[in-house]
Amino acid sequence: MPDSVFLSGDSVDLRPIEEDDLEFLRPAVNDRRIWRPIGRSRPVNREQEREFFEDVVCNDDTVNLLIVTDSTPIGTVAFNGIDWEADRAEIGYWIAPDHHRQGYATDAVERFVTYGFDQLGLHKITARVFEFNEASQRLLESIGFTKEGIHRDEVFVDGDYQDTYWYGLLEANWRSRVD
């Protein structure tokens, strides 16, 4: 797998997702511990993962990076639905279960948020988190995101309707936190 680091963190590096990475991504997103928190209730086969790579990863309106530690892929972080006119994007991320609780997601998200504000000129970054995903809620809140609202029974995940919590982070709040 390629080693072209785009952003370096304290414990992880972020690099472009390449076609060779599909062999890591497909089994990972089919793991219940990943698909449940990201709200994906159907399995993904090779062709669907390739379509995701071609249609989403290679799209100019998203930024998708692989999270690696010691050159080993452990997850992804992305800006989806970038609204260039409003200078806003939604962040999404996941870490493979064997690498949970080691600070990798926090390092990756902090680095990526900084990139969004410093390099993409974003004014606001949003995130959606399901009510049962307390770890992701804690991560977002720990780096300055504010819970802005709740969409009740927004999605059907794993046999139950789940509320979706919406978070937001304004550039000014980020700057006052890191300065």
From TrEMBL:
InterPro entries: Acyl_CoA_acyltransferase (IPR016181), GNAT_dom (IPR000182), Ribosomal_N-acetyltransferase (IPR051908). GO terms for molecular function: protein N-terminal-serine acetyltransferase activity; protein-N-terminal-alanine acetyltransferase activity. Residues 12-172 form the N-acetyltransferase domain. SUPFAM superfamilies: Acyl-CoA N-acyltransferases (Nat). One of its GO terms (cellular component) is cytoplasm. This is GCN5-related N-acetyltransferase.
